[in-house]
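Consider the following assembly input.
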Amino acid sequence: MKEFDWIKSFLAPLVGKEGLNLEDDAALYTPPAGQDLILTKDTLVEGVHFLEGEYGADTAQRLLAVNLSDLAAKGARPVGYLLSTAWPKHLNASSLTDCMRDFAQGLANIQSAYNFKLFGGDTVRIDGPMTISATLLGGVPSGAMVRRSGAELGDIVWASGNIGDAHLGLMVALQNDDLKAYMPSSEEAHYWEESFRFPVPRLSFVDSLRLYANACADISDGVFSEALHIANASNLRIELFLSCVPLSEASQKWCLAGDEEERRMRLSSAGDDYELLFTAPSKHSHAIQDAAKAIGLRVTKIGRVTEGSGLNCVGMNGQPVAITKHGYSH
Amino acid sequence: MKEFDWIKSFLAPLVGKEGLNLEDDAALYTPPAGQDLILTKDTLVEGVHFLEGEYGADTAQRLLAVNLSDLAAKGARPVGYLLSTAWPKHLNASSLTDCMRDFAQGLANIQSAYNFKLFGGDTVRIDGPMTISATLLGGVPSGAMVRRSGAELGDIVWASGNIGDAHLGLMVALQNDDLKAYMPSSEEAHYWEESFRFPVPRLSFVDSLRLYANACADISDGVFSEALHIANASNLRIELFLSCVPLSEASQKWCLAGDEEERRMRLSSAGDDYELLFTAPSKHSHAIQDAAKAIGLRVTKIGRVTEGSGLNCVGMNGQPVAITKHGYSH
């Protein structure tokens, strides 16, 4: 299986007209009038950002989902993407073909779920871990991008979905001893692992985000880390209430089975949630809740924007807790 | 040296306003009216696309140059880029900082030479070879992109610059035995090696290309390979004259020191030239030569577009030569 075969057999069906049948050196995109382009590029390395040896659909979906999550946080809808894949040399011809077929299926799944196309990219072999990178193009109406730096004094801080499930799912996937001692039910373990394996980019909320939010980031590196980024970029302080960080029933149960505060801190700094962390004026709170309810998305108030700088986390007993680890530094 | 330090110390000075100070999840680009976007993404792997252990300015320049060459072939000027770097884990903190400083200097050199900015990207560590990827955005006036598929019957086929110098430069860099037996002068060896190390994207010719050319590709995988791509994409046949493939004096001398035809074939299939291979109606021949002369660029007629399909190479004695290797398949 050589580069041209991979392109012709597996990638060609995924290509939009912008990709010029993958026959050219570059893609051609004519931006519609009145649209700003949002661009994001994330790289995943085998054994760091996805599990070793997982060369198929799950990894392809993860690559697109984490990039889509960046677009969602900016209020943007995806338009297309460029893809680079470095396939490990240790894969023999037949395994490589199987992996490529499965990987392309994962790309197809996400493309059709979120309605965007492949524009181009390249393929190489690597004598090392599989390394994949996608550059996504998204569109927002001119001037409507939601920035990290837009938080305003008095804003409410919100989180979408549940925090920490993905982290516990990674512990399940890695058969981590901590979690084995806890002995989750098979339903809980399955639920967590799926949360880790299949992050859901919150693209269904982008219209509301553009309407109501002043600032947003997606939670890739943990709630604390992203909140600190928003606070710093906005030259303000964020106060978070640990007791308000939204957890699933399963994760709530896990927290209560140990030192609740310590475990909630761990889940809030772990990352890989790919939920939205956003700030909005309090006058929009009802509208935000209604809009989220309409699409079946949980949204939770977890803090507020105050004067000052940095991050303050209020613990379970109402006292500030020191944050020793803002997030996971890849 | 962690991700945030690399970004703040070395990348921040390279960022355009579109990069939002690298403080956001994504970049924001407002395309000017009347412009099409040209997008290209190329990945380089240590030991495959650049020499092992070369983590500094040369490699950074190579990464941008090979992507810029793709834009040049489409008649586009660069606007900005997203960059992903996967730094090898074996580099200790101090070497890593040195490499990062040097790498960023290479980026700065190319950015200022061709007038474009960094928009964003990401950084990871890898337990394997350094792997770097850039996505370049270029602009052309609406509808003016030069495609691979535009060749027309009767077009002249042209090549810019000299072919094969980069290949011989790679042989010098690798201390290849073939070349050692030939014993080039130190000037020749230096000239070849520089040609390999510092490909020059032919951006100075893009206006002429848009004016006169029907089809173009940049020569990354060898003259034969790229000519075949143009022929196939255009549903026509290309006939190339081996004796016309432009060589530097040094490379010409090397060819004459062995089997000239075999050596010319080798240089024409080797790749890494990053010259332009383009087709244009014969009525534009004078204008093309004048335009090239004005910017000090050598351009040479090397063939023609005929009826049929595929590629025909006419050898030194006027007879067709079988092409066994269209190019280097990475």
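Chain B has two domains: 3-141, 155-321. Ask yourself how this observation constrains the way the partners meet.
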